[in-house]
């Protein structure tokens, strides 16, 4: 592991999912739904869903990062978004890979807050300057994180696909 980067392996990711799920269970929180923030939170959302025996999984897509340490001015929720009526009265666990600035978690938490019975957040990593203090954190770091799913370039040219 370099001084500049925190490196997450797929093996450690599996451990992180399980340990986060155990922390949620030990806390007595029983979510009705896991709401994963795409793209980074998809794997964690699936892992938490299985480990917590929650079959009701949903996804919200938020665009914020455009490159390594490059981001938009504000996070943007992209359609389709979950219908708030489908969230009414539920206990939600919002899952993402990292609370860096925390603004992505903040926008999703604000989106569901007035509609759910309770919303808590779970992340693999939290950074000290995050505006949101997640309820469940596997590790804390101030370093840039190399996630196994995003450290290598795509196998296709995104520009050729019109992305």
Name its key features.
163 residues, alpha/beta, Rossmann fold, 6-stranded mixed β-sheet, two-stranded parallel sheet, 4 helices, 26% helix, globular
What does this protein look like?
This protein has helices at 10-26, 42-51, 84-87, 103-113; strands spanning 5-7, 33-38, 57-67, 70-78, 91-99, 118-126, 136-140, 144-146. The protein has a single domain, classed as Rossmann fold (3-Layer(aba) Sandwich), CATH 3.40.50. It has 4 helices and 8 strands. Helix 2 (42-51) links the parallel strand 2 and strand 3. With 163 residues, the chain is α/β, with parallel strands linked by helices. The strands form 2 sheets. Strands 4-3-2-5-6-7 form a 6-stranded mixed β-sheet, with helices on both faces. A two-stranded parallel sheet has the order 1-8. Helix 1 crosses helix 2 (42-51).
Which helices and strands occur, and which strands form pairs?
Blueprint: E1 5-7, H1 10-26, E2 33-38, H2 42-51, E3 57-67, E4 70-78, H3 84-87, E5 91-99, H4 103-113, E6 118-126, E7 136-140, E8 144-146
Parallel strand pairs: 1-8, 2-3, 2-5, 5-6, 6-7
Antiparallel strand pairs: 3-4
Helix pairs in contact: 1-2
Keywords: Glycosyltransferase, Transferase
Protein name: Phosphoribosyltransferase
Pfam families: Pribosyltran
